[in-house]
Amino acid sequence: RIKMAPKHNNVLPNTHCRKRWQTRVKCYFNQPMHKKRRALTREAKVEQIAPRPAAGLVRPVVRCQTFKYNTKQRLGRGFTLQELKKAGISKKEALNIGISVDHRRRNKSNESLQANVNRLTAYKAKLVVLPKKGGFQEPVAQLTGTVLPLAAPALRTRARAITDEEKKARVYQSMRVARADA
């Protein structure tokens, strides 16, 4: 049988019928143990992949998105196929020697392309390839930090006096001429 809504301008019935709220509450008293378990799992993974770098694969330098952040640089997902080709590394070889690959990324400028090619060549110069079966005698130290971390951004230059040469320069005119010649 369906009950109808109450008629007239009365107070709406809002009876709290003892819903046993204690059974519906979730208390995260296990949070510290979960934190410890995650830390132990990370340590176990680092030991398992040794002597490979603990931080994982080497990543490219990319610019952040949007007008607000595109002056900043960060580590990207993977190197483009064009960057790998310029560095003389095949896609399959890159994955074997700890280089991340992103086949979707495109190079929009020669500067970023050259910077990442230089990064790859620097990585390849420092790379020590060991045999798979563990035939190496001397112990090899495992890298714990980021592989080839980003250089700290340069501090802003202090204000200085304008030189006579800079005062004489016709910047607007030279820019217009450069634009017309391009």
Mind explaining what this structure looks like?
With 182 residues, the chain is mainly alpha-helical. Helix content is 38%, strand content 3%. It contains 7 helices and 2 strands, in the order αβαβααααα. Strands 1-2 form a two-stranded antiparallel sheet. α3 packs across α5. The longest helix is centred in the first third of the chain and has 19 residues.
Succession of helices and strands: HEHEHHHHH
Secondary-structure class: mainly alpha
What gyration radius follows from the Cα positions, in whole Å? Answer: 30 Å
Q: Which stretches are poorly predicted, pLDDT < 50 over at least 5 residues?
A: none
Largest sheet, if any? 2 strands, antiparallel
Secondary structure: helix percent: 25-40%
